[in-house]
Amino acid sequence: xxxxREFKTSLLxxxxxxxxxxxxxxxxxxxxxxxGNLLKEFNSGWKWKFPEAVFQFGICxxxxxxxxxxxxxxxxxxxxxxxxxxxxxxxxxxxxxSEDLESPFWDISSVESNALEKKMLQSxxxxxxxxxxxxxxxxxxxxxxxxxxxxxxxxx
Length: 156
Known about the structure:
Radius of gyration: 20 Å
Mean pLDDT: 76
Oligomer: single chain
Number of helices: 4
């Protein structure tokens, strides 16, 4: 009869990611220094073995009273990073509300999207040419709306 063994999960908890309280998040006072550090990390050379990688960072836009989590997707092409697109998977904080928004993709306005894209472009996270062909929140919303119309037409 086989011996029944117990699987110990306590060892797995050691490297577990801890979720920081949103109250501990601080808005950087010197935005230029923050963006400089961000770009230094971005340009330091990525040693990934996958064909695609995500560069994730936070950015505060005082004019919208929001702090965003942004994800930029890149593909490795001839040892260079080719920009594929970006999205806002989560707001860190909406300063005008007490609760945090978990699904901002649908809550982001075209004005916000354009301002975020402009800031990323000015920072050098992608070129203007790459931005023209990339997937953005506004393009994704349009694509999903067109797809929904096609689905609705199938069932009508």
